Amino acid sequence: MKMKHCIYSVFVIIALTSCIKDNSSYGLREKEAITVTGVEKSYSGLLHGKNIVIDPIVQASDAQADLEYLWVMLPNDTLTRTRILDLKLNKEPGLYRIRLQVRNKRTDYSHYETAELKIGTAYTRGWYVAKSTQSKTDIDLFVPGNTSQEYQYMDNVFSLNNNRKLEGDPLLMSFYGRYFAWDGKEYVPTRTLFVVSERDGSSIGINSFKEFRSFETLFLMTPPVRKPTFIISAAIAQYAANDGQLYGYSVASRSTGQFGAPNRIDDRNTPYHLSKYFIGTVLGSGAYFFDELSSSFVLGVSAGGMLAPVRDSSKTDIPANKSAKNMLYMGLKTETPTTGYAIFQDKSNPLIKTVAEVIPSATHFMMKGYPIRPTEKLYNASRYMLLEGEENLLFFVVGNEIWSRNLSNHTEQLQYVVPQGEKITLLRHRKYTLEPAYAHSYVAVGTVTGGRYKVRMFTKNTGRLNPEPAFILEGNGDYVGDLLYVGDGLKDFFTHNTSY
Prior knowledge:
Layout: H1 2-18, E1 34-37, E2 42-46, E3 52-54, E4 57-60, E5 67-73, E6 77-80, E7 85-87, E8 94-104, E9 109-120, E10 126-133, E11 136-144, E12 151-154, H2 157-162, E13 166-167, E14 170-182, E15 187-197, E16 200-205, E17 211-214, H3 215-218, E18 228-234, E19 237-242, E20 245-250, E21 274-280, E22 287-291, E23 296-299, E24 308-309, E25 325-334, E26 339-346, E27 353-359, E28 366-372, E29 383-386, E30 393-398, E31 401-406, E32 412-417, E33 423-432, E34 440-449, E35 452-458, E36 460-461, E37 464-465, E38 471-476, E39 479-486
Parallel strand pairs: 2-9
Antiparallel strand pairs: 1-4, 3-7, 5-6, 5-8, 8-9, 10-11, 10-39, 11-12, 14-15, 15-16, 16-17, 18-19, 19-20, 21-22, 22-23, 23-24, 25-26, 26-27, 27-28, 29-30, 30-31, 31-32, 33-34, 34-35, 35-38, 36-37
């Protein structure tokens, strides 16, 4: 009985104790807060442009807070573990979300800030310049500024995006708006820039400037010799030349964007070697090439397989086949009707040179030839250029001088003298009419000296270059080989005609 009484007393004491009021402040502690300012709702920038820098101001209600930071690109790509975000814009153009986590390590409390990030591209408009340093080709981009003659310089955009340079000095660039490229699911028409160097080639998506295909994969079977000279679009076909052999495929239907076996020149598989010069137009009847071995013109065929022979007009001065001439130059003069001009040198007597108007045709090929006298400046020219669709002038280089020849009356005129010490490596006519706001016509003169290049962009007045260039594109490189303007008007089948 005594034991039961003791147990009862213990229970009474416990019950009385549980009714005592708790005057502590455990449940009244103020809720923790972390405040972040300086993070905007959205940010935007250009691919490989100026970094996005976010420097937030952080305040914590916990006086003893031990804060740590984590920036991520959602869902889980860690950017930095520092308070300040210095973000390089090197991801594909698109819309992203970034998030800052601020965590108090002492209490494990976290606060989050989220922002939208839009990465655009600078690559869809501007002047592309193909240049090289120590025979390694890269591409610079000049992005338009506030006026048509102000540009932001972006150096080496090809290697920046593709981690490689092209082998050899640059030769030629071209653009096609419907090149079939793989988008992860299928081959789709894509706006594409092509660049060819002495020992390399590439097709490049213009939005991201990522390489679709290198020289090795431009062909279904990689050629054993790497000597490309051009990649062009003409009529309903795309053509490439490598080591004097022509490759082609039709663009009228979906493809993988690769060139198959080289074309044959006839059913006997006679050897041939094409000149790097050609006449081909986007809206014309096709592309015409010159075989250096037989001194004969041939016509490209969109279906590939075999090149087509051409037949002379009864009015021609120079035969299209077996003319016994070397071709020193040929370029496009007009698109419709398709015409061009060529400079020939006799094989039997190299002292005989001729300038010829070329009116190509599969069945009535005609050339009108005019002798070049040794006393004329054109006789010793080293580089040539035609004005497409404009004055009937042929521009050419003699030493450090730019000359022109009137192809109607054969008079010659000194146009510009390059400063001493500069070497001329580029002479091009660049014309763009697909967007009125950006329309232009320039004669481009590229020079190099001391590891730097200059491309002087001249306008004309009735065939005469203005005394000073409208603007100059300058960059790093010991050789400049080509330049091309890219804009929104280059799409579908609307593009530049390509010509040396």
